[in-house]
């Protein structure tokens, strides 16, 4: 280069602003912009002063518009004023100015997740931040509160059966509503970052969520989808005899299950002699089953909690469905009363009387009697919800249902040994539930949510027996009618609060007061014999009113990135007949993350139950009687420990759980009489029972496929359930009637095409223990028409050990296929199901049959579910 060129280069460098050759925090800068983004300001500083900015667009948001007018100000002062409102911190690394989010500053976003088409709020939806690896879930009412760093601008929101989506958070703290589209109307799109749905990210163990879609996919008994039969296909849950819709959870009895319908307890959960469950699954929004590890907010039962939430009703459009099957018909309708503000849903079911029931029961009976049997059930659900403001919503829900059966027998043949001539007899029985709930949701702030509820529930049972017969000796017509009724009511108020102080903490607390009214025995007897003045008598058993109080608090807390804990306490008291029982029930759940995203879980639970159920052995009718704890029979209590591992595959296709549990129980009751029949003298029911202990332990494994055209699960349970009573079975431990050693469940669903889908379920259950006599002696011939077992010529049975016989194993294959045709505004579906495909004769009920000629008695069984095809036609609009 020539001398002139070198001189020109030096002069050019000297003419440049000195600040582009280097900068420090004291560098004086001048910036004048009008309503420009922070990114534009950074670009000006880089151009004019050589300050190179480095930052991640995912963590630092520079889109905010600013107006700046500064002249010869210190660089550090200018940067502090620019970035402070957005909680952006800055530091110098070499010649770079690095921008970072200030993670010490947080904000709280709260709101609801709802169905985009109907406005229905979605409980259990997941809000997940892939960047922070943190998230939360919506509560039972679809509410969430997520406290996160200021820089978090978007999260993934997901819910089973709905399209996951990215949700942008607003800049300020406020209540928002997030709408999700149902996957039934959209093609599947995979959204990454939905780890919040994984089993290993849930501290709660022994919990299963049952969706309405899963219930409707299972094969249908007599054309009806059934929630309880779906629950019975879960490992650790058994239904006992074939066709019974009761729940035996981890060796517990049906009365040890707390079944809640919109927060109100249900005391009998079956229709049609246990074949159908109480609730129409078409109006159910969500069902959570807790087999153990109960959160502190639940109490009052020992074995399980079934928390059922009904749909709220469509806020935008009217629609419904109707179905007709072989034994029942049903319909439901929902829609807005005031669009986007008030909605309703109503449903009704009714079975057809005297068409199917006689043909289902298979009894071998040589008596030539003509019987008229009529049996049916009905139920009605209704719910209204109203939005007062973004922070206030009111729900009103109602249920009523009843079963009725009438048996009228005209006798045409009477044994020669009879001392009477029977003309006719009649038997009427009815039972039902009525439930109501009024709930108010309120948001106090971005972190605090409350639900205040008033609940009412009643269960009643009534039976009437009438006889007309002639006494030959007096040639006198006798006409007698006896009626027996029992009733159980509960009314209460409850307040639940959900507080989310930070992503590491989720605190729930609340209180409740419930009033119980027990009327277990109300009976009347009338002798309407024509030759004498009619005799009417009335006898009332014990009637008790009791008050139950509870207070709870629970906290789910992330101690380290890998260690989570849910700790709580449930305090309760029960005041009855001047005696106060009280208890403190600790609850503890632990989760530790193992390598490769496996989660180890452990739980300890203590539960108390203040009410007992007196059950009549040997009958499938709901003649059970609820009574409170007394000064002689204390409340039942249990302690359960559970350990397990869980994992969801990376793409959330497969789930695996393995759990083991051990539960001991105190103050269990058992009838001293092996026949187990409660006498009408309930004033002395404590004298008829023995109080003892129980144990239940075992293991459960389940592998499920959750996504794709092929879904379902395989489950296996190995379990033991035993009892010991001082004055029964010689004080020795014996297997209890809910002891099922092996239980296998296989559920399979396959989408065949756009219009066709197929489902199948197979279950194997080890037989149950039952008590049989070891000897029989002929007794005095009473000739009493009131004896439903032996009639004239009673025998006296002698019993040995309790539950000395185990029934045969039960297994059954059910299949179903659906054909659906979708129209623009409506759809129609044909369902074809076959129950017990290979016609295995599973027992529903055992009885001892007597052969007078051979002088023998032998065990016989009643089978109510042979191979049974059904067809149902339904329309949705």
Automatic annotation (TrEMBL):
<dbReference type="InterPro" id="IPR012910">
    <property type="entry name" value="Plug_dom"/>
</dbReference>
<keyword id="KW-1134">Transmembrane beta strand</keyword>
<keyword id="KW-0812">Transmembrane</keyword>
<feature type="domain" description="TonB-dependent receptor plug">
    <location>
        <begin position="223"/>
        <end position="301"/>
    </location>
</feature>
<dbReference type="InterPro" id="IPR037066">
    <property type="entry name" value="Plug_dom_sf"/>
</dbReference>
<dbReference type="InterPro" id="IPR036942">
    <property type="entry name" value="Beta-barrel_TonB_sf"/>
</dbReference>
<keyword id="KW-0472">Membrane</keyword>
<protein>
    <submittedName>
        <fullName>Outer membrane receptor proteins, mostly Fe transport</fullName>
    </submittedName>
</protein>
<keyword id="KW-0998">Cell outer membrane</keyword>
<dbReference type="Pfam" id="PF07715">
    <property type="entry name" value="Plug"/>
</dbReference>
<dbReference type="GO" id="GO:0044718">
    <property type="term" value="P:siderophore transmembrane transport"/>
</dbReference>
<keyword id="KW-0732">Signal</keyword>
<keyword id="KW-0813">Transport</keyword>
<keyword id="KW-0675">Receptor</keyword>
<dbReference type="GO" id="GO:0015344">
    <property type="term" value="F:siderophore uptake transmembrane transporter activity"/>
</dbReference>
<dbReference type="InterPro" id="IPR039426">
    <property type="entry name" value="TonB-dep_rcpt-like"/>
</dbReference>
<dbReference type="InterPro" id="IPR008969">
    <property type="entry name" value="CarboxyPept-like_regulatory"/>
</dbReference>
<dbReference type="GO" id="GO:0009279">
    <property type="term" value="C:cell outer membrane"/>
</dbReference>
<dbReference type="Pfam" id="PF13715">
    <property type="entry name" value="CarbopepD_reg_2"/>
</dbReference>
């Amino acid at each position: 280069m020539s001398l002139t060129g070198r001189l020109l280069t030096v002069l050019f460098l000297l003419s440049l602003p000195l600040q582009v050759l280097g900068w420090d925090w004291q560098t004086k800068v001048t910036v004048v912009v009008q309503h420009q983004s922070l990114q534009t300001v950074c670009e000006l500083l880089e151009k004019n002063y050589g300050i190179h900015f480095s930052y991640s667009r995912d963590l630092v948001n520079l889109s905010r518009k600013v107006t700046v007018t500064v002249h010869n100000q210190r660089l550090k002062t200018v940067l502090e004023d620019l970035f402070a409102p957005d909680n952006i911190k800055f530091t110098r690394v070499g010649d770079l100015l690095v921008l970072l989010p200030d993670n010490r500053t947080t904000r709280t976003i709260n709101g609801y997740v709802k169905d985009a088409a109907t406005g229905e709020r979605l409980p259990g939806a997941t809000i997940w931040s892939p960047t922070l690896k943190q998230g939360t879930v919506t509560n039972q009412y679809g509410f969430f509160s997520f406290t996160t760093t200021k820089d978090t601008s978007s999260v993934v929101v997901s819910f089973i059966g709905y399209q996951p989506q990215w949700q942008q958070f607003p800049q300020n703290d406020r209540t928002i509503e997030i709408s999700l589209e149902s996957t039934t109307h959209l093609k599947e799109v995979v959204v990454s970052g939905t780890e919040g749905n994984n089993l290993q990210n849930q501290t709660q163990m022994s919990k299963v969520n049952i969706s309405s879609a899963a219930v409707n996919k299972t094969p249908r008994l007599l054309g009806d989808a059934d929630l309880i039969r779906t629950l019975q296909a879960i490992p650790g849950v058994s239904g006992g005899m074939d066709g019974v819709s009761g729940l035996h959870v981890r060796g517990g009895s049906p009365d040890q299950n707390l079944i809640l319908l919109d927060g109100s307890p249900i005391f009998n959960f079956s229709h049609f002699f246990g074949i159908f469950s109480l609730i129409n699954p078409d109006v159910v929004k969500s069902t959570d089953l807790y087999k153990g590890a109960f959160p502190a907010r639940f109490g009052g039962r020992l074995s399980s909690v079934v928390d059922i939430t009904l749909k709220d009703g469509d806020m935008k459009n009217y629609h419904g469905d109707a179905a007709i099957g072989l034994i029942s018909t049903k319909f439901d309708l929902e829609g807005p009363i005031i669009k986007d503000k008030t909605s309703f849903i109503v449903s009704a079911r009714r079975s057809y009387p005297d068409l199917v029931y006689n043909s289902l029961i298979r009894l071998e009976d040589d008596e030539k009697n003509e019987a008229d049997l009529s049996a049916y059930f009905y139920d009605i659900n209704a719910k209204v919800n109203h939005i007062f403001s973004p922070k206030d919503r009111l729900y009103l829900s109602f249920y009523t249902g009843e079963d009725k059966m009438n048996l009228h027998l005209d006798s045409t043949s009477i044994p020669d040994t009879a001392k009477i001539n029977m003309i006719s007899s009649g038997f009427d029985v009815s039972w039902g539930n009525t439930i109501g709930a009024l709930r108010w949701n309120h948001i106090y702030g971005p972190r605090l949510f409350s639900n205040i509820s008033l609940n009412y529930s009643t269960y009643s049972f009534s039976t009437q027996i009438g006889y007309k017969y002639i006494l030959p000796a007096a040639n006198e017509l006798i006409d007698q009618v006896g009626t027996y009724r029992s009733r159980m009511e509960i009314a209460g108020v409850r307040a639940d609060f959900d507080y989310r102080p930070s992503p590491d903490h989720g605190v729930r607390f609340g209180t409740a007061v419930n009033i119980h009214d027990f009327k277990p025995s109300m009976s009347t007897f009338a002798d309407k014999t024509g030759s004498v003045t009619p005799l009417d008598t009335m006898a009332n058993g014990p009637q008790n009113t009791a008050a139950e109080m509870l207070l709870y608090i629970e906290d789910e807390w992330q101690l380290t990135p890998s260690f989570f804990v849910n700790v709580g306490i449930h305090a309760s008291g029960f005041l009855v007949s001047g005696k106060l029982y009280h208890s403190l029930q600790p609850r503890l759940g632990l989760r530790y993350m193992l390598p490769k995203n496996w989660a180890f879980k452990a739980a300890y639970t203590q539960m108390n139950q203040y009410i007992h159920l007196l059950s009549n052995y040997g009958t499938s009718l709901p003649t059970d009687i609820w009574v409170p704890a007394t000064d002689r029979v204390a409340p039942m209590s249990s302690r359960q420990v559970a350990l397990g591992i869980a994992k969801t595959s990376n793409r959330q296709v497969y789930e695996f759980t393995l759990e083991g549990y051990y539960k001991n129980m105190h103050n269990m009751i058992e009838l001293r009489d092996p026949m187990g029949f409660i006498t009408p003298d309930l004033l002395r029911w404590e004298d008829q029972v023995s109080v003892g202990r129980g144990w239940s332990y075992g293991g459960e494994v389940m592998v499920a496929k959750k996504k794709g055209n092929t879904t379902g699960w395989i489950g296996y349970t190995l379990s033991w359930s035993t009892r010991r009573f001082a004055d029964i079975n010689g004080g020795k431990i014996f297997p209890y009637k809910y002891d099922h050693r092996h239980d296998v469940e296989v559920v399979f669903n396959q989408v065949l095409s756009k219009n066709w889908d197929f489902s199948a379920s197979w279950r194997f259950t080890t037989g149950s223990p039952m008590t049989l006599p070891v000897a029989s002696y002929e007794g005095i011939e009473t000739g009493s028409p009131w004896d439903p077992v032996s009639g004239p010529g009673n025998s006296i049975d002698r019993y040995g050990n309790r539950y000395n016989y185990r029934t045969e194993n039960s297994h059954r294959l059910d299949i179903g296929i659906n054909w659906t045709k979708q129209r623009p505004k409506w759809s129609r579906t044909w369902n074809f199901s076959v129950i017990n495909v290979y016609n295995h004769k599973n027992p529903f009920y055992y009885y001892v049959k007597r052969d007078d000629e051979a002088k023998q008695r032998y065990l016989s069984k009643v089978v109510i579910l042979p191979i049974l095809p059904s067809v149902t036609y339904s329309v949705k609009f």
